TrEMBL record:
CDD domains: M48_yhfN_like (cd07344). Coiled coil: none annotated. It comes from Haloferax gibbonsii. Residues 23-230 form the YgjP-like metallopeptidase domain. This is DUF45 family protein. It comes from the Archaea. Pfam families: YgjP-like.
């Protein structure tokens, strides 16, 4: 993944080359990652020039919203719906068969929800299978987001727990941090911000200037990530 820097803001981007294009095009989704579609004839300098020309558009697209998005509509967990994972929306396919209980798996960019075919499976049971998968995945993946920050802060052993936190994305407790499992729905940049925020409390108990300076040493564009979470946090739901 490449990165484009606008001041302290870091924008990840991916270049997709195509023989059918004659110009360079930009697009961005809620993952905060930029996709650049370019012809094979384009050079790195051409792409960098387009990024510079579109700098204002990139910033406006990232942070131009003035209010929180509405939460998504309730899902029925049917084939064709999309589920968030690390900030990307992935298509869901429901497969009926001789399964004892609903079970969710993720494979090759697609969610597969296996459900029993001999009964009318309720939306509640399907949702629980989805939540269980998110929870297990969050327990497995989120703690690793802290490794670099723990080293940079010179901390010793830190306990990292993943739980249901009704009104917070993270919490610092003496000797460890607790992360909301729903962060697994968010872009990794946002996961990193929350982790860095909570670890910074190991050095500073309150949100003082010193605290935010510490966060800034770990995540230089923390203001933009914090704003993204404020604007989009309600969409991180199942």
């Amino acid at each position: 993944m490449n990165e484009y820097h606008i001041g302290q803001t870091v924008v990840p981007y991916e270049v997709k080359w195509s023989q059918d294009r004659s110009t360079i095009g930009l697009s961005m989704d809620h993952s905060m990652e930029l996709t650049i579609k370019a012809p094979y004839s384009a050079t790195t300098e051409d792409i960098e020039q387009v990024l510079d020309d579109k700098k204002e558009w990139i910033l406006k697209t990232l942070y131009g919203l003035s209010e929180q998005e509405d939460p998504p509509l309730d899902k029925e967990f049917l084939s064709g719906e999309k589920l968030l994972y690390n900030g990307r929306r992935n298509r869901l396919r429901v497969a009926e068969g001789e399964y004892p209980e609903p079970d969710l798996q993720f494979d090759s960019g697609q969610f597969i929800l296996s459900v029993p075919d001999d009964s009318d499976v309720s939306t509640r049971r399907k949702r629980q299978a989805v939540v269980d998968w998110y929870y297990r995945t969050a327990e497995r993946e989120l703690p690793s987001r802290a490794d670099d920050y723990i080293a940079k802060l010179g901390l010793g052993e830190i306990d990292i727990d993943v739980r249901e936190l009704p009104s917070r994305w993270g919490e610092y407790r003496s000797g460890g941090i607790v992360l909301n499992w729903r962060l697994i729905l968010a872009p990794r940049k946002i996961q990193d911000y929350v982790v860095a925020h909570e670890l910074a409390h190991s050095k500073h108990g309150d949100h003082s200037d010193s605290f935010w300076n510490t966060v800034g040493t770990l995540v230089p564009d923390y203001r933009e990530r914090r704003e993204w979470l404020r604007l989009h946090g309600s969409t991180l739901s199942v």
